[in-house]
Design a protein that fits this description.
21% of the residues lie in helices and 41% in strands. It has 150 residues and is α+β, with helices and mostly antiparallel strands. The protein has a single domain, classed as Roll (Pnp Oxidase, Chain A), CATH 2.30.110. Strand 7 and strand 8 form a beta hairpin. The longest helix has 13 residues.
């Protein structure tokens, strides 16, 4: 991936804070849910309940798809990211605690009371490593996508 494309992807990741994650249910149907995320470069992190369907799905098959985008009143202003990625549980306490400190920083406009984050062992944290990234940019033409292999 060239530096220009990397910077475009990082800009989109940094401008947003929620994503839709699709996992595979045991019956083969995809399950899509919205989660908050934080990223360090191209590595993304999200959390969910210890025994959530999402966590169980990923334990069976770590392949996920995700989208990051925003609403826009201009059809040709649609931009976003779609990724095929691998989600691995974060088992290192220091890494988990760092992620839990970073997540509330994505919400600086939250009410003055601090966001009470769960303890690292009360949630399932996942590290998401992209395999293929589609960068959607309608300003380059309807449905224009640049495909990047990581």
């Amino acid at each position: 991936m060239n530096d220009e494309m990397r910077q475009k992807i990082l800009k989109l990741l940094d401008e947003h804070r929620i994503m839709t994650v699709a996992t595979l249910r045991p019956d083969g149907w995809p399950q899509a849910t919205t989660v908050g995320y934080v990223n360090e470069g191209l590595t993304l992190y999200f959390l969910c309940g210890l025994d959530s369907q999402k966590a169980r799905n990923i334990a069976r098959d770590d392949r996920i798809s995700l989208t990051i985008d925003h609403d826009t009143p201009d059809l040709m202003g649609i931009t976003g990211l779609s990724m095929a990625a691998r989600a691995k549980p974060v088992t290192d306490r220091a890494e988990a605690e760092k992620v839990l400190r970073l997540l509330p920083l994505r919400y600086p406009d939250a009410p003055p009371a601090p966001i009470e984050m769960p303890k690292w062992d009360e949630v399932r944290l996942f590290r998401v490593t992209p395999v293929v990234i589609s960068v959607l940019d309608y300003s380059k033409g309807f449905g224009h996508t640049d495909l990047v292999t990581c």
